[in-house]
Amino acid sequence: MSVLISIILISIILSNFNVEASRTRSKIEKEKYLRQLIRQLQWNEYKRSYYYYHTRTEAEGDCTADIIGDLRWYGEQTIAIPSLDTTQRCMDTCDMDSKCMGWTYDPDTKWCMGYNSITGLYSAPGMKSGSCIGTSIKSKCSEKRVDGQYSGTNLKKLETVSSPEDCMTACDNLNTCYSWLYTPQLQTCDLFDNMGTFYPGEGFITGSCIAPQKRVRLAEPLKVFRKEALERHNDVRKKHCVPDLTLDSDLNKLSQDLATKLAAEDNMPPIYQETGLQTVYYDIADAARHCTSIVDCFYDERNYYDWNSPDFSATNRFPKVIWKGSQKLGVGRAFSTDTNTMYIVISYDWQGDWTQSYKENVLPVCT
């Protein structure tokens, strides 16, 4: 059903709501709730057209090893994302995927590629690559197999090599060598830029120079998520000349407990509750990998904010982001059992009658 049709249907319900209002709640409360539904439909449509991969302010995770230029990985590619405008965003995307062992970014096409296994690399002018295993993908050559050979793209062929150990040393000395093949009968050494399929056979000695690939997560995703929420709040608060917020452990726990509860129930949370300065947000899992984009969605509600007659029921998220009286915030995030839905709760420390406090707490952009 299109957003326009949905809004028309809700508007019809609103215009004929007097009959049912007395059975549930007051007409005013129902009108507010239906206005929220219309606003939510508009927000859902907006989110579908908005690209959610936002940059982090600094590298937080473990995807900063092996950062190299003009090369890209061989391997099993599991991530392919267009329109990422920086290397950092590509790195962040891989960092937040526990199966991603490495990434390659092409600034010309703005494509980001992630790999769940890496078998080598090859020349790719202009591209940049990195790994996410906490160490270099290339390791000292130690494997030595006498029952066959690895296939690969030949970097260099050496003649008159007296032993497989000398062949291994030659691979160690070449940064782009990831496997080797020694032929005793010919005393030749082939150096490969990747480790391909192993083929059993006699008369060859071969080995891989690739480190074991296991993610070593140095960043806690929720910690990163909370930091992003704080930084983005303070970015937009500066536009309104209101003080910065700080993260609060008690508010983090309060928010996390509610997010966990909502995720366990896996029901659509109330869009608007008169419970003070707390925001509940939900969406398809991983629709927003970074909290920056979510806070941006909240802040963009300002386009609908009525400065002459403010009301949380129509734009309940924007005022909370820039609320002058708030000093602290806490963030919780949880996923439903099937991981199809993400629930986020952001709580603020301000206490008081917010219905009478708009004028002194929701300030326009300062000059």
Automatic annotation (TrEMBL):
Residues 1-21 form the signal peptide. GO terms for cellular component: extracellular region. The keyword Repeat applies. Gene3D superfamilies: CAP, Hepatocyte Growth Factor. GO terms for biological process: proteolysis. Keywords: Disulfide bond, Repeat, Signal. Residues 141-209 form the Apple domain. It comes from the Eukaryota. The keyword Signal applies. Transmembrane segments: none annotated. This is Apple domain-containing protein. It comes from Adineta steineri.
